[in-house]
Structure formats: structure tokens, C-alpha cells
Amino acid sequence: MIPARYDASRFPGKLMKNLGGEPVIVQTYRATVNTSLFDEVYVVTDNELIFNAVVNSGGKAIRSTTDHQSGSDRIAEAVRQMDVDLVVNVQGDEPFAEKKSLSKLIAAFDQDKRKEIDLASLMVRIIHKDEIQSPNTVKVITDSNGLALYFSRYPIPFSRDSSVDTQFFKHKGVYAFRKQALLDFQKLEPRLLELSEKIECLRFLEHGRKIQMVETDVVGIEIDTPDDLVEAEKLWNRNTSPQ
Length: 243
Prior knowledge:
The chain has about 240 residues and is of the alpha/beta class. The protein folds into 2 domains: about 1-90, Alpha-Beta Complex (Spore Coat Polysaccharide Biosynthesis Protein SpsA, Chain A); about 100-220, Alpha-Beta Complex (Spore Coat Polysaccharide Biosynthesis Protein SpsA, Chain A), CATH 3.90.550.10. Helix content is about 35%, strand content about 20%. The chain has helices spanning about 25-35, 50-55, 70-80, 100-110, 130-135, 180-185, 190-195, 200-205, 225-240, and strands at about 1-5, 20, 20-25, 45, 60-65, 85-90, 120-125, 140, 150, 170-180, 210-215. The strands form 4 sheets. A 4-stranded mixed β-sheet has the order 6-10-7-11, with helices on both faces. It has a 3-stranded parallel β-sheet with strand order 1-4-5, sandwiched between helices. The longest helix is centred in the C-terminal third of the chain and has 15 residues, at about 225-240. About 35% of the residues are buried.
């Protein structure tokens, strides 16, 4: 499921911006389908422009209502009547979605024999210092088993001792849910931390749920700002140019 809204706060209309001759949302849809990991792939949106762009390109889309606080709320509405076990939420601004990372994400549930985790998500090590400081980059810290302890737009952990090799991880907004956990999410009230940080997975932590983080070395580009789109265009051109 690819939740898609038009009025993104930092970059309105970004999903309809051109990337490689097609809107960003269409390229994200195609990249997700091309992984061949999923029985079905849908874009879920309340926006007519996005819906028509996907359908007219041969893709599948579902119209949702408008009163959703997060992408997870939006796809919960879409899957409620579907006979599925696992739902993967790929963000609409991830046109470089790829098989390697998504396979590792899904595998986390195969390894969870006791069915203790509610959802899994991706993280990648941060190399550039400007990303550590940027509020547009969501950071995550985990326990020794890879379970999320906290997500923040602030640099976490705080590096007080310069002699310690502190590592920072960026949360990539790709989630895999057990269906019931996703439906439960929609019923949970947002609490102070989520409302303060504007990070939806904090809702799970605040309600005592477990999030398994899965490390990937594939960085990719999430299009949050106009500058990100410029970088995405450069990467797209490199990937598609003749060798």
C-alpha cells in the first residue's frame, strides 16, 4: 500500500512533480511493483489528480476519505475488508523503492515465531553530519535486539563524549504491519510525543507496542523538499543513462 496525499507540508504537490517523465507517485508505484514481492500494490489517496495519474498509467489506486492524520491511518481504511496477513506501507515519495531492503523487512516477520512484534521498519546509518542535525531527517535508536526505543527529529543519541564512536541511524518511512496491528493503530489516540515530533510511529511506542527495526545499506532518496527532487533527478539520470 502506498499512501499518497497532495498537500505535503514541506513540499506541496511533490508526488505530482515530474521525475523521469512521469509523476513521482507513478514512479514509486512502478518501483514497488517491479520488486515482485507483493500479491497486490495499490496507491491509496483522497486526491483526484494522484488517483487519475496512477490509474491512467495502468496502475491500481483506491480512493480514501480525507480525514486521516497519517499514511498508516489511510491504508488501514483501505485494507479493512481485504483478506491479507501482512501489509507493507511504502511512502509515495520513495521512487527508488527496491527489493533488497523490502525483502529484509518482510523477513523480520518470518523470524518472529512468537508473533511479538506489531510492525517492522527500515533504518540506514547516517554518514553526513548535516543529516544528523536536520529536522527533516528522523533519527531512531534501538535496544540490543533492534527494537525501537525512540524516534526523533533531534539528533539522538546525544554525543556527550567525543571519544565514543556514536552511531546515528535514519528512519526510512517504510513499514510492514500485521493487519490487525494496522487496524489497531487507527483506533489509538495520538499522544504528546507524536503530536510534538510529528512522527506517526511514536504512536505505537506511546501505546506500548513493539517496532522491529531492520538495518539496510541502501540509502536511496526520499523526496521531502525541492532540493531532494533535484538530487532524485540526478540519481534517476545516472541509473537510466546508457553505460
